[in-house]
Design a protein that fits this description.
This protein is α+β, with helices and mostly antiparallel strands. Helices cover 23% and strands 34% of the residues. 19% of the residues are buried.
Amino acid sequence: MAASLTEYSGRIPFFLDSFLSSPGAKIPRQGQWILTFDKIPEPAIKKAIKYEPGNTWSIETAMAAALNENYIKSQGCLFAQAVEIPGEATSTNPEGLQTNGFIRSVVGGGREIFEQLKIVFLETNTSFVDNVIRPWVIATSHLGLIARSGDDNYRTDATVFKLGNTEKGPVLLQKYNFFGVCPINVSGMEFNYSPSNSPINRNATFLYHYYTTEGSTI
């Protein structure tokens, strides 16, 4: 036992002085990330809402205002409050005789279908959700879910940048690229006369073809 303690006696100084002091071992902060869309498919959205019954939705001016105020490609989607990065899983199945105490083997059952990309947006007066995401969901319904091109392309690419701070300044920790993104669901909103100072968050769910991730070395 004494030999074992001697062998590991240097772990605490190493953990404190070498491991925790290295930039790569620091705990990332939750609030340091950016979401960008490659482009918002405005032509497809404007075309799709013309299929709606009654008068055409009058949202083009509001859409332009929402995009100008809430979305700047060089700065990201400014009112995105939260992004749930999908997980990854592979299914498994037991195989073999289920008799007495015999232990069955486990075999792969294939890769699980991609989880949906979930994004939470802050509601504002120009409402990025109601004037961009809501009609975009309708465009997905009218034009999808099949391949489209040109002005009928209702999909885009989205990127989530996970950022961190070091002694040298901000750095990119992880980059998630989602290709062929389109919204399929957007939450509603309740109006009531009860006073509240809490911000209103709106949830949207997106599908995508596939994703990639890129890590960086600090």
